[in-house]
Design goal:
Radius of gyration: 25 Å
Strand content: 25-35%
Largest sheet: 7 strands, mixed
Distance between the termini: 69 Å
Number of helices: 4
Number of strands: 28
Oligomer: single chain
Number of domains: 2
Structural class: mainly beta
Length: 440
């Protein structure tokens, strides 16, 4: 009896001490999200009611969604401490937006805000989000096959491609359309750069960066930059059609001869794809001292104009630590004459260090952020909410044969209109096997 009493007293004392100490795991948080419009003027005219707010626990993958009250506020009660992706979005019908603001538009206007990889602890009572509108693209990035296929039985990285879609009801011309892969900090731990609170590079600290511009919020910096050829009306793209841009425009399912004269083949053709029908391809051999043997030139497929490159071919980052943009020049300054800047390294860069074009956000037509498939591998976000409030990824990661594919929003007179909310988390799905010109 005495032994049972001692055990009871010990257990009661232990539980009481835990309560006094305040074990964080036993506590929950009431998190208030406060939304507002980044533009003060629009904030006076537009409603904050029923803004869709989502929080995603990146470790448990549990997502919760609520709508704001008339003041733009919402509370997520009883959530666990942890790391969260927080986003907010509202779609304002074109007629409503015109009536409220006086700005004439025939398209719905979407405002987004996000705070990714935000650590929420017991000391965090609220998070503020500023809503920003982005362009609703005429050209859309439809599919990105960055993961590649198995390195032993598939084609490795050779079969990568990007697909760009005409989301309008009119013929558009792909001539002089640009696309780029964006650079940035690839981890939260590398301490050799000047960084922002979100972990991304602080480009304002780059050598010779002008002080009278917002280098971080109004510009982006590509590590690879390409332009499609053409005389102006040489490459028409029909409404609801797309262009496929291949790293190498061959049938990767079948053997082909590399530039070294050796046969390149795959053990399992079902893991890869046929890109012989691509519209454009990258060809680096003319300006590399040691080009890849797999970088052959398909004479029936036009080559991209390469303004900046990273690596030995149009190699997309297989883990998915990058972002992609599509844009047209502004008609004032040639893109090749845009200024270039070094990484904002804490140590002074050498004269031979890489420099990167500075592209204005204002001319970007569409942008898609890619992140690794596991939360622990995620990197600082490269695109702001005005370009992409979210991100997408291939669920099985690198060399999985998977691609990310934009969802179909609706059909209109037989034409597919793809989803475009400037939030890739909402806009994209995936293919288990990449499918050029396929739809989801």
């Amino acid at each position: 009896m005495m032994r049972k009493l001692i055990i009871f007293i010990f257990c009661a004392t232990f539980l009481l001490s835990c309560k006094k100490i305040g074990n964080p795991e036993l506590h929950s948080i009431d998190l208030k999200i406060i939304t507002s419009y980044a533009s003060t003027e629009l904030g006076k005219k537009l409603s904050l009611h029923t803004i869709q707010v989502k929080i995603l626990n990146v470790n448990t993958n549990v997502e919760k969604e609520l709508l704001t009250d008339a003041s733009g506020n919402v509370s997520f009660d009883g959530i666990s401490p942890g790391v969260y992706d927080i986003s907010a979005t509202i779609k304002i019908p074109a007629a409503t937006y015109t009536a409220l603001t006086g700005e004439i538009t025939d398209k719905d206007v979407i405002f987004n805000a996000s705070n990714k990889n935000k650590t929420i602890s017991l000391n965090d009572a609220s998070v503020s989000l500023k809503l920003i509108s982005g362009n609703i693209g005429s050209w859309l990035i439809k599919q990105i096959y960055y993961a590649g296929s198995n390195t032993t039985t598939g084609a490795g990285f050779r079969d990568q491609f990007i697909e760009i879609y005409n989301n309008t009801d009119s013929i558009m011309y792909a001539d002089s359309l640009y696309f780029a892969e964006i650079t940035g900090r690839q981890s939260y731990t590398n301490a050799s750069y000047y960084t922002l609170p979100n972990g991304q590079l602080d480009w304002s600290k780059s050598v010779n960066m002008p002080t009278n511009i917002d280098a971080n919020n109004n510009y982006i910096y590509p590590k690879a930059l390409f332009m499609l050829p053409g005389s102006g009306r040489q490459y028409p793209v029909q409404p609801g059609a797309s262009i496929v841009i291949a790293q190498t425009a061959v049938n990767h399912k079948a053997p082909f001869t590399g530039t070294d004269g050796k046969t390149i083949t795959v053990r399992d053709p079902s893991l890869t794809i046929d890109l012989s029908g691509a519209d454009f391809e990258a060809y680096y051999a003319p300006f590399l001292p040691r080009p890849l043997a797999s970088d052959i030139d398909n004479p029936s497929v036009p080559n991209l104009i390469v303004l900046a490159y990273n690596g030995t071919d149009m190699l997309f980052d297989n883990p998915g630590r990058t972002a992609y943009i599509v844009f047209k020049g502004d008609g004032i300054t040639e893109v090749k004459n845009y200024p270039v800047y070094n990484y904002p390294t804490i140590s002074v860069p050498s004269s031979t260090s890489d420099k990167f074009y500075q592209i204005p956000n204002a001319i970007v037509i569409d942008a898609v952020e890619i992140q690794p498939n596991t939360a622990s591998a995620r990197v600082p976000k490269k695109l702001g909410a005005s370009l992409d409030a979210g991100y997408t990824f291939a669920p099985n990661g690198q060399y999985s044969s998977q691609s990310v594919i934009r969802k179909t929003d609706k059909m209109e007179n037989g034409r597919r209109i793809l989803k475009d909310t400037n939030n890739s988390t909402e806009d994209f799905d995936y293919f288990s096997l990449a499918a050029p010109r396929g739809f989801k």
